Amino acid sequence: MPRRVNVKRTPEHRLTANIVSSKFSYFIADYRPTGVSFVDDEALIELETTIEEIEPANPDHHGAALECALICAKRYNIDPPGVVGHPGLFSVILKRNRRSVLAYLPSEAFWALQTRLDVQKLNRLELTYIAPSRGVGDLTGIYVRQT
């Protein structure tokens, strides 16, 4: 009979923030003239938010600004043909002097979000993350919605 492994799970933390503003930028670079066989592109949505709820409660962060960077990036390999790049959730930083979060999104979701943000249809950001250690925790989920 296989031995049962007792894995201690760290409970997820959660915060909800109001989206105050958003900025969009796009970059594309063709490296083929330099002898490299790829093209990179990157689109960025920068959200300025205000933390409204945080669990477990932390008065240092309640009402504070949180920067959120949502990125869509791809590398188009010309030789051999193919596309490199994948979504990823990175870290949540919750320190006294800096609060931020970073995620690479699938392109379809990224462009749909960008369109909805442009017409101000989305106004809430919800995050789940592993308990921070020294102010940094692993992001486990992002939910952007309209209230």
What does this structure look like?
- This protein has 147 residues and is mainly β.
- The chain has one domain (12-145).
- It is built from 1 helix and 8 strands, in the order E-E-E-E-E-E-H-E-E.
- The longest helix is centred in the last third of the chain and has 12 residues, at 107-118.
- It is elongated.
Write the layout of secondary structure elements.
Elements: E1 12-30, E2 38-55, E3 65-77, E4 82-84, E5 88-95, E6 98-104, H1 107-118, E7 124-130, E8 136-145
Parallel strand pairs: 3-6
Antiparallel strand pairs: 1-2, 1-7, 2-3, 3-4, 5-6, 5-8, 7-8
List keywords for this structure.
elongated, mainly beta
* Radius of gyration of CA atoms, rounded to a whole number: 18 Å
Give the N-to-C terminal Cα separation.
51 Å
- Give the tally of β-strands: 8
% residues in beta strands: over 45%
Question: Which stretches are poorly predicted, pLDDT < 50 over at least 5 residues?
Answer: none
Strand order of the largest sheet: 1-2-3-6-5-8-7
Oligomerization category of the chains in this entry: single chain
